[in-house]
């Protein structure tokens, strides 16, 4: 029955129905809202597949351009940046624009097809990572064009933010922050530095659990915050600490939606301006309860950022002893931030928020 229904939709969208059959099918669409919704989703899917094919074709062209550039580098007749820029600047700009549109078009279609929440989040994380790779690749090409010599690679890059989960050395950050790392270091504003390793990852929710490895580590002091187990309300005042640059930065705003990117119920939307280095930072309510983990922001929309809800972080923590041989995470039970002014809360909080440095 499902097969026949999709066959009818294919013929209708392709314009292959005779007039009587088309009229009957359109009349059925007026009365059967479920069929009309499926037809809409099927049309979206076909359009998405077509966009994906165009995107793959553009990627092939970019690879061909890169190969051509390397071939021309062997000739000393004309500087490589003049040849490449003259021939391909306009094409690269068009390719970049279409690639970005294709990525966000795919994200939109995933939501329209109403797949399970976990699958939506997995696609969002994967596509966001692929988009970042495209941006980095194109930025590298432009830098290579405008510079005759390449700078020496830095030994480490400030990738994001993490914060303590328990006094015995567990932390959390966004999984895309530490992806592909050979080694990881953390450091707070007091100068405390520790080598850590990733011990567990939840790629669906973009969360990673880290553990301090230093032999001399005696433990963090008592954590001043607790983890909220219930959902926060729309309009609540919220704030975060993170490392969008070398110094720690405070950001404050409100909870603007109880769902995240394209209706993702595992996340909040918040009205705090964020930068990439904020990923993995804590999100707290006005009383100092930890309610989420900063995950990213919506491109092209200033002030629209997202955080994974604390309920999913707590679920990940509960799975940790079952999935590994590590000791359980002893979560803090007392909130000492409540009742304090914001500056006082930040003084207590900042020693437990770390910059995450990734070494490759």
TrEMBL record:
GO terms for biological process: proteolysis. InterPro entries: Peptidase_S1_PA, Peptidase_S1C. Gene3D superfamilies: 2.40.10.120. The keyword Protease applies. SUPFAM superfamilies: Trypsin-like serine proteases. Keywords: Hydrolase, Protease. The keyword Disulfide bond does not apply. Signal peptide: none annotated. One of its GO terms (molecular function) is peptidase activity. This is Serine protease.
């Amino acid at each position: 029955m499902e097969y026949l229904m999709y066959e009818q939709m294919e013929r209708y969208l392709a314009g292959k129905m005779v007039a009587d059959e088309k009229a009957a099918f359109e009349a059925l669409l007026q009365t059967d809202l479920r069929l009309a919704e499926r037809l809409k989703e099927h049309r979206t899917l076909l359009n998405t597949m077509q966009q994906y094919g165009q995107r793959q074709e553009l990627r092939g062209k970019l690879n061909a351009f890169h190969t051509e550039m390397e071939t021309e580098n062997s000739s000393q007749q004309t500087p490589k940046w003049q040849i490449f820029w003259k021939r391909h600047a306009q094409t690269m700009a068009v390719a970049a624009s279409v690639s970005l549109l294709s990525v966000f078009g795919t994200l939109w279609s995933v939501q329209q097809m109403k797949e399970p929440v976990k699958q939506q989040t997995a696609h969002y994380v994967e596509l966001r990572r692929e988009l970042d790779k495209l941006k980095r690749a194109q930025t590298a090409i432009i830098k290579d064009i405008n510079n005759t010599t390449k700078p020496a690679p830095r030994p480490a890059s400030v990738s994001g933010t993490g914060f303590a989960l328990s006094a015995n050395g567990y932390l959390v950050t966004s999984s895309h922050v530490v992806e592909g790392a050979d080694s990881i270091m953390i450091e707070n504003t007091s100068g405390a530095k520790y080598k850590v390793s990733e011990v567990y990852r939840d790629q669906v929710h973009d969360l990673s659990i880290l553990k301090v490895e230093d032999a001399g580590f005696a433990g963090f002091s008592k954590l001043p915050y607790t983890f909220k187990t219930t959902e926060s309300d729309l309009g609540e005042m919220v704030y975060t600490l993170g490392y969008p640059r070398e110094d720690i930065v405070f950001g404050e705003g409100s909870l603007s939606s109880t769902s995240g990117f394209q209706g993702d119920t595992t996340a909040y939307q918040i009205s705090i301006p964020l930068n990439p280095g904020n990923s993995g930072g804590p999100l707290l309510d006005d009383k100092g309860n930890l309610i989420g983990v900063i995950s990213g922001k919506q491109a092209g929309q200033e002030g629209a950022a997202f955080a994974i809800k604390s309920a999913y972080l707590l679920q990940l923590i509960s799975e940790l002893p079952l999935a590994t041989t590590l000791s359980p995470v002893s979560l803090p039970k007392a909130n000492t931030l409540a009742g304090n002014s914001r500056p006082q809360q930040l003084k207590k909080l900042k020693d437990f928020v770390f910059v995450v440095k990734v070494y490759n």
